[in-house]
Specification:
With 189 residues, this protein is mostly helical. The protein has one domain. Helix content is 68%, strand content 0%. Helix 2 crosses helix 6, helix 4 runs antiparallel to helix 7 and helix 5 crosses helix 7.
Length: 189
Amino acid sequence: MLLNTELTNNWLDNILPWWRDANTWIPLYVFLLIFMIMNFGWRSVGWIIFLIATASLTDLVSSWFFKDYFMRVRPCNDPFLATQARLLINRCPSSFSFTSSHATNHFGVAMFIFLTLKPFIGKWGWLFFAWAATICYGQVYVGVHYPLDVVAGGLLGCALGWLMSKIYGAIHTKGLSLHAALKTPEASS
């Protein structure tokens, strides 16, 4: 409740509801797709499929398993907290709260991108975790999650992103991997 009721300001009140919205991040996803296709051509197809599979898996596990298993009521739907919590979006979601799907999805994608593109983006890969963390902070700030929801969701997402990066690495042979694409003449021209 501290992040939602006391550690607040007008600037964050205006930015964070927009920041945590999925539509805000469409340009980043489009940039990633263009980056992959421009740099790796057809070799990026497997990576793109795995990125989509990672996002799908994280959402499925968080939304359909954890939330339905734990059935934790969101702070904005809790009868004891609803009068104290500030809800900064148009409506309180009716789904359960634990784990945060935003946190699971964004940290899962961040981990997958970080591990699979690290040779190409280096230290810049850490920005994906900062991006995910700010979205998680926004979830608590706008009143739809408890801090534990986003922490657990972030850890779950990282674990699933790590798993998907290992499966991706195991499935792709050297001839189809991004690493091999750097060694081919078409990649260096």
